[in-house]
Automatic annotation (TrEMBL):
Record flagged with keyword Nucleus: yes
GO MF annotation: an example: DNA binding
Compartments (UniProt record): Nucleus
GO cellular component, one term: transcription factor TFIIIC complex
Name of the protein: General transcription factor 3C polypeptide 1
GO BP annotation list: 5S class rRNA transcription by RNA polymerase III; transcription initiation at RNA polymerase III promoter
Length: 1120
């Protein structure tokens, strides 16, 4: 019995000690004892056993009782392995993390000999003497969760096995001890290094934590194994799982399903010839579902060992027949997706081992072991032998670790030898990048002129000096900002509701936010500009202060090369190359609106050079800080704020750029435009469907406030020698002419229309208690999706009306307009309508034009341009259903289409539930862009400036000249006209909408009378049909044009090969009847009403003779 009682005391002391300096409450102690292996089997935790254990606690002199100021929260043991991805078996980070009742708060009380982490260390009270006299029931009633049990420092060191592993000469730091304490508290669950519920909660930087863990691993206090975890946003953390060593009693091997699947894939590929296999074969052998395979193959950890490449079909299947390896429709070989092992020698069991950066130079060790000194010759000075080692190394030189290894010296002795050689001026040192570290290489003076390291260093230094002289000549005056003037507000009122704050980083990275509304009073802005001008004049006396920055940095580099100073900066050739690339690029572009572009440029140039190590963001920031202090560049932080959304952008600019420079203002306007398009909410409200709602950008009255200047360009590198020449400025002239304010308003209005359509809005029927109309997925909505040439005609008519033929009035009297409509169209029964529910009328006629507002003037004085966002905002319902396939049928949509007035409403004015059914998934944008592309294929449109990556944020130019070729005289063919005949060309100039209708009617007439599509005439002949979207002539028609180039190219030419009907490209198949009419469903009639001759009234008469129209066409043709 005494032995069992002794064992219980050991268990109690161990559990209390493992909880650390924070101590443990009684409730938490019972929870821990239940989790302890084999404890509850010998002694079930009940009221009697608790009283017995309490009697043992109060008699133990190594356990102290403390009272907390406030009760401690209940202990919840978090098991991360209850949150697993069922497919990959990766630990998932929980959305709601459990509360940490042991916050990080380091304590080192030398007077009491206590150390650890405890937030309430100085507030809690020692009540060991009084509480030990009470029974368990009395203690729980009097103190409750305020009572904590704390083990002595000796017990806690014993539980962590510190005394057995280290002695007083190897004492741990406080942070290392707290890390060990947290790992001990985790018991068998272990502590991880990544994620929110991990050692990262201590708040120390990862680099320091790595060295702390490395120290504990070296002392064999903890064990390490790999750990993968997926965060909330889908990112995967690769870290380590740590346990206490202590005879491996807490160690639990964790091999996730994810790791085992990677190992299985490696084993499969190692058995294949060439260590590669087709994607489908690997997937079948692994026997996993498609979704699991897709997730696995896309993971970063999987791609570290296996790469996904494509290979020719016959390389994978050498015995394949021509029908198997040849592509359909062309004489080219197929490519097969294969999985290939990156390192064929890898051991599958070594996959996913935790890899951490290991320093080249080990830590100081007082017990280095037996030194290998077989190269040391006795009787010859050690410095002389060391110099011989350096000389034998040649131009590459040696490092301190190499010197220690070759001469059999310790690290400290090797460092002393290298310093003495350098002090005697027999060698010189150069810093060389080795991975992510900088290592000093000692090179003999014998190779000072011929060594490639020295030559590269001198070359980069000369480049920097040359650019310094160029910058001196370009920068006429000093920097416009003092140390105190680190921020100001951009003087602009282009986009109201967006705050822009500028911060100049002069002496380092500071954070002094200062912002102002852009719609501030102009008088205040003028005063601010005058004050800044006075400040510039007051600094002119210090004109040389900036140039001193250049000289100072180069002087440090010179001292590093000549070894004239012991504490020289760590400047490497790689660092100077990167600095020169940045200086050259900034000198060419002047303003770079994203520092990541510089990082991407450097990484691409170094990868082409063959340098495998990628530059990270921290290294770039350090380099930019040094260049900023030296005066080579300026770092400007731009803060954009719209409501609660804040975006911070770092600008890297030339030293000559000031806050008033148009280059900087133009780049900021671009960022504001992108920010406004991505902001979830803005202070500007979209105009609604009332009488005054004419569309947000309809008036076009917003005057331009954007400053002139080129857009900051994307940085691209093609060669290492001159990085700046490889940076393109994308259409800088467009920014001079573009009204960025109105463009942003159009983009935001379209975005708000989508946002409102995706929100849940109560329908009128629901509010009235009537069951709403059922919206079901069904094809064939009335009037929807006619043939593609008919849809092209509809969109062309709308574009021409918006750009050239707009006849609406913004200041139209609404009462008079409705009276005019009622008198001209009595069938509409205007008197029975509630006119207050309709938006503003711009055109007093019952047609699709009546509710369309004018286009905003984005291009200022330029005509012929339209912004696709504006076109989408001006789509009437009757035209929308003809252009877009409506897959959600609703009787209410049919009711709108049958109503004489509502069918002409713009889509943005429809009820939200109907608009949601029409705009769902933004499919309509794809349909409209496809029609725009086809209009470009026939020479009616040209693309212009692209604002952002979205398809609808692009400008288009509507051509006024067009032409057709009379191909009715061609001989029979399948899809191409005869090449040996002369044809008549018809030239068009679109001055009004009637000319557009005539053009499309003539195109239809020619296409239907061209003798193409016959099969009998092509018997025995080979026909090659090319894909329209892949033809070079067609792709060239989609090339963006500038505001000057597009009007010059408006000459009526037809893109493509000209071998199709009407002179169009043969791959458009304009001669096929199905591209012009359809007899199925509710589509247009065999002869579309949209293509009637212009002289028919309203395009409603469908009875006419095609031969008469064709004769009229022939009378108006001219011979080429």
């Amino acid at each position: 019995m005494a032995c069992q009682g002794l064992q219980y005391i050991v268990d109690l002391e161990d559990e209390i000690a493992l909880e650390g300096l924070d101590g443990i409450t009684l409730e938490a102690l019972w929870t821990r004892l239940k989790q302890r292996p084999n404890f509850e089997a010998n002694m079930p935790i009940d009221s009697d056993s608790k009283a017995f254990l309490w009697s043992l606690i109060v008699q133990d002199e190594e356990i102290f009782l403390f009272e907390l100021p406030t009760p401690r929260d209940k202990l919840e043991i978090f098991n991360r392995y209850e949150h697993m991805d069922p497919e990959l078996g990766i630990v998932l980070e929980p959305e709601e993390e459990p509360k940490d009742i042991y916050p990080f708060h380091p304590v080192e009380d030398e007077s009491e000999g206590m150390r650890g982490s405890c937030k309430m260390y100085h507030e809690r009270v020692n009540i060991s003497d009084s509480a030990s006299l009470l029974t368990l029931e009395e203690v729980e009633k009097q103190y409750g969760e305020k009572l904590v049990l704390v083990a002595s420092q000796t017990l806690r060191n014993k539980a962590l096995c510190i005394s057995a592993c280290i002695d007083k000469f190897y004492d741990l730091t406080l942070t290392q001890y707290i890390i060990l304490e947290r790992i001990g508290r985790s018991r068998r669950m272990g502590e991880i290094t990544q994620g929110k519920i991990s050692l990262a909660a201590m708040g120390d930087n990862p680099k320091s934590m790595f060295y702390h863990r490395k120290r504990l691993l070296k002392l064999n206090l903890i064990t390490k194994q790999p750990h993968q975890q997926k965060g909330h946003k889908g990112q995967t953390y690769n870290g380590s799982l740590l346990h206490l060593t202590i005879l491996i009693r807490f160690y639990v091997e964790r091999r996730s399903k994810f790791i085992m699947m990677i190992q299985r894939a490696v084993e499969i590929l190692k058995t294949k010839p060439g260590y590669c296999a087709p994607y489908t074969a690997v997937k079948e052998e692994m026997g996993m579902p498609e979704t699991s395979c897709r997730k696995l193959f896309k993971s970063t950890e999987f791609q570290r060992y296996i790469k996904n490449v494509t290979a020719p079909y016959r390389k994978v299947y050498p015995d394949a027949s021509p029908s198997q390896w040849r592509c359909k429709g062309k004489d080219a070989e197929k490519f097969v997706r294969i999985m290939e092992l990156i390192n064929p020698k890898i051991d599958p069991m070594e996959v996913c081992k935790a890899e951490e950066v290991v320093e080249d130079e080990e830590e100081d060790d007082s017990y280095p072991g037996i030194l290998d000194q077989h190269r040391v010759v006795w009787g010859i000075g050690l410095l002389q032998q060391a110099y011989k080692v350096v000389e034998e190394a040649g131009p590459e030189g040696v490092s301190q670790s190499d010197m220690a290894r070759l001469l059999g010296q310790t690290k400290l002795d090797s460092r002393t030898i290298c310093r003495n050689l350098q002090r005697r001026n027999t060698v010189h040192s150069l810093m060389k990048d080795v991975g992510r570290q900088r290592v000093s290489r000692y090179v003999s003076h014998k190779y000072a002129r011929t060594g490639h390291l020295t030559q590269e260093f001198r070359k980069e230094r000369q480049r920097m000096m040359a650019m310094m002289e160029a910058n001196k000549a370009e920068v006429c005056g000093p920097s416009t900002s003092k140390e105190g003037e680190v921020s100001r507000v951009l003087e602009s009122n282009s986009l109201e509701g967006v705050e822009v704050g500028l911060e100049m980083l002069t002496g380092g990275r500071v954070n002094i936010p200062k912002s102002k509304r852009l719609n501030a009073d102009s008088s205040n802005l003028t005063k601010e500009a005058d004050q800044s001008q006075k400040k510039r004049q007051s600094i002119d006396d210090d004109g040389d202060s900036k140039n001193k920055g250049f000289v100072r940095m180069l002087e440090e580099i010179r001292l590093t090369y000549n070894n004239q100073r012991r504490n020289s900066p760590h400047v490497t050739t790689r660092m100077m190359k990167r600095a020169n690339m940045i200086i050259e690029t900034v000198g060419s572009i002047k303003v770079i609106d994203d520092a990541f572009k510089l990082q991407k440029m450097i990484v691409q140039a170094e990868s082409e050079e063959g340098y495998a190590v990628k530059m990270d963001k921290k290294s770039l920031n350090r380099l930019l800080d040094k260049l900023s202090k030296g005066g080579f560049v300026k770092n400007i932080i731009v803060k954009l704020k719209c409501n609660t959304m804040v975006k911070v952008v770092q600008f890297v600019v030339h030293p000559s750029i000031t806050f008033e420079s148009p280059h900087l203002k133009s780049a900021i306007e671009q960022q504001k435009l992108k920010f406004l398009a991505s902001a979830p909410d803005t202070k500007r409200e979209a105009e609604g469907g009332g009488a005054g709602g004419g569309g947000g950008g309809g008036s076009g009255s917003t005057k331009g406030g954007a400053a002139a200047g080129p857009e900051s360009a994307k940085v691209k590198v093609k060669s290492e020698s001159s990085a700046a020449k490889m940076v393109k400025k994308a259409m800088s002239e467009e920014n001079d002419r573009m009204n960025k304010s109105s463009v942003g308003a159009s983009m935001q209005e379209l975005k708000q229309m989508h946002q409102v359509s995706t929100t849940t809005v109560a329908t009128p029927e629901a509010e009235a208690g009537v069951a709403p109309a059922v919206v079901k997925k069904e094809a064939g909505v009335k009037g929807s999706l006619g043939p593609k040439f008919v849809r092209m005609c509809e969109l062309h008519k709308l574009l021409f009306y918006l750009v050239y033929g707009y006849s609406g009035k913004e200041d139209m009297d609404q009462v008079e307009a409705w009276q005019t409509i009622a008198s001209s169209s009595p069938e509409a029964q205007i008197h029975a309508e509630d006119l207050s529910t309709y938006p503003m009328v711009y055109y007093a006629e019952l047609s699709w034009k009546m509710f369309i507002p004018p286009l905003p003037n984005h291009m200022n004085s330029e005509s012929g341009w339209a912004f696709v966002c504006d076109v989408l905002l001006r789509l009437p319902l009757c035209i929308f259903v003809r252009l877009v396939s409506i897959c959600h049928y609703s009787s209410e949509i049919d009711a709108f289409m049958n109503h004489p007035i509502k069918r002409n409403l713009l889509v943005k004015y429809l009820p939200p539930h109907l608009r949601q059914a029409l705009l769902q998934g933004r499919r309509y944008v794809t349909y409209v862009i496809d029609l725009i592309n086809r209009l470009c294929y026939v020479g009616l449109l040209q693309y212009g400036h692209q604002i952002m990556k979205e398809k609808d944020q692009v400008f288009i130019y509507v051509n006024r000249h067009a032409s057709l070729i009379d191909t009715t005289t061609s001989g029979p063919g399948y899809h191409q006209i005869s090449a040996d005949k002369e044809y008549v060309r018809k030239e068009y100039f679109f001055s009004c909408l009637q000319d557009v209708l005539q053009y499309w009617y003539d195109m239809w007439t020619i296409s239907m009378h061209t003798p193409l599509g016959g099969h009998n005439c092509m018997q025995g002949k080979k026909i090659t049909i090319q894909i329209l979207d892949r033809k070079p002539q067609i792709i060239e028609s989609l090339t963006p044009r500038s505001t000057e180039e597009a009007p010059a190219r408006d000459n009526g030419s037809i893109p493509g090969d000209g071998r199709g009907a009407g002179g169009l490209d043969s791959a458009m198949f304009a001669h096929l009847k199905r591209n012009w009419s359809s007899n199925s469903g509710h589509s247009a009639s065999a002869r579309p009403s949209a293509l009637l001759p212009p002289n028919t009234e309203g395009g409603e008469r469908a009875t006419y003779e095609g031969t008469i129209s064709y004769t009229q066409y022939l009378m108006n043709t001219t011979k080429i």
